Amino acid sequence: xxxxxxxxxxxxxxxxxxxxxxxxxxxxxxxxxxxxxxxxxxxxxxxxxxxxxxxxxxxxxxxxxxxxxxxxxxxxxxxxxxxxxxxxxxxxxxxxxxxxxxxxxxxxxxxxxxxxxxxxxxxxxxxxxxxxxxxxxxxxxxxxxxxxxxxxxxxxxxxxxxxxxxxxxxxxxxxxxxxxxxxxxxxxxxxxxxxxxxxxxxxxxxxxxxxxxxxxxxxxxxxxxxxxxxxxxxxxxxxxxxxxxxxxxxxxxxxxxxxxxxxxxxxxxxxxxxxxxxxxxxxxxxxxxxxxxxxxxxxxxxxxxxxxxxxxxxxxx
Amino acid sequence: xxxxxxxxxxxxxxxxxxxxxxxxxxxxxxxxxxxxxxxxxxxxxxxxxxxxxxxxxxxxxxxxxxxxxxxxxxxxxxxxxxxxxxxxxxxxxxxxxxxxxxxxxxxxxxxxxxxxxxxxxxxxxxxxxxxxxxxxxxxxxxxxxxxxxxxxxxxxxxxxxxxxxxxxxxxxxxxxxxxxxxxxxxxxxxxxxxxxxxxxxxxxxxxxxxxxxxxxxxxxxxxxxxxxxxxxxxxxxxxxxxxxxxxxxxxxxxxxxxxxxxxxxxxxxxxxxxxxxxxxx
Lengths: 317, 281
Hints:
The structure holds two protein chains of two kinds. In chain A, about 35% of the residues lie in helices and about 25% in strands. By secondary structure, chain A is of the alpha/beta class. In chain A, about 45% of the residues are buried. Helix content of chain B is about 70%, strand content about 0%. Chain B has 13 helices and no strands. The longest helix of chain B is centred in the first third of the chain and has 32 residues, at about 75-105. Classes of the chains: A alpha/beta, B mainly alpha. At the A-B interface, helix 2, strand 6, helix 3, helix 4 and helix 5 of A face helix 1, helix 5 and helix 6 of B.
């Protein structure tokens, strides 16, 4: 049996996905606006609020939607020229519930393996293996339509893994899962990205999911990339973020901080997070508070998180 | 549920098939899935009953010369056999075909299929092959077997030699019948997420167009508007294929154009509806 051409072997430093000025339109709505990005090897988070264009980007990479302009490469192959060669080497876990009706889990996953080009015997063997790996070993002969939401998420991961892809697209993989199932799914994704040498792109609006599983992040908002790079690098040096609570006119004080070049954003509580730029002294906050006749009730150095990166990039909206 | 890391993940180093064969996987799975259903097996056996009756007819006509005057097979008998099978084609098209794409749409399976290395045309070909195979199994195969039984029972090729056109006629007629039913049903199946609704829609189209033609026939008293009925168009063309006198006043090329047009429209619908992502603008 002939083997599928493997395509060019990219160097370890080459990005697994490269987008250059990609624009996608749905009717009059521009879902992606000239997106340029490089997805590094390993685990990359694709982060953004709902409607930012994350799923559209994945669908464009899969060839489901054709960009109006721009160029995309996946694993060194041009998406416009070699969509099938690309799809033979990637696994896609869709966001919505998806299965093939009337099949039990092992038949479904084996079938997906065959569709991806595996011989039937190998596909069935791999189906059993990946079902055990994702934690569905005991339930593999059950009809998928009887599965719980968490189990359906796992079966979607199994079908994406069965043909051993070089790159995984995971679209909101923890959607609808209970806390325990979510932790297990994240452990699984972390294991794939860090111990099994599977490159993956995790699209999510959940910051903790991305922070736990990924080394790099690409932040999207309103169809554009607003930040990208290694998470640690984007977080910046520790100690430059402060938690702050004041008594006084809060909106005016925030405006004052921003006017003086200090980014700040509110959190769920009444505590703000203030970014003090390099070379500036955090004691300036006291000076500004004194000018505004506001009382500082709480000021504590904090560790930068992905939430800060996200807030800086996307804003407080 | 067992702990999540019972077994670890292994990389795969085996062979991978070359691209372009996935439609056979879809077709095989679809056929096997149907063959597992008892109701389908029952339907298939029922669809072969006319074959048994015709086989007995041919046996009697071949072995009892006194019956040959009214039982002897001719081209008309084969045409009549295919016409009888139209009922089973109709039932099987609804039973097998209604859910072929509709069920995938209901379960969001299209994005799973199209994320694998297969083209949309391969997906459609795989699904079409399922219905097409079964339709040929109730039309072309029994008709061809009857032809061979005739030779076997008679012990000579005399009938075959005298009716050389029958083999291609059966093949072309069965192909046209199966292709029209397959593509029309697949197109309807791609329009909905409910196989039940698709089945009703298909039956509605067949009966509604026949009823419109029937009404026009009653009003005008002429069969020149038979092109309004899907079934009549097929009948008209198949009559010509079997060298029979066309039974309607509509010119047969018009009927053929309607049949081919329906297939073309169905393919166009499939091209628009079978996508990995549904775009609502």
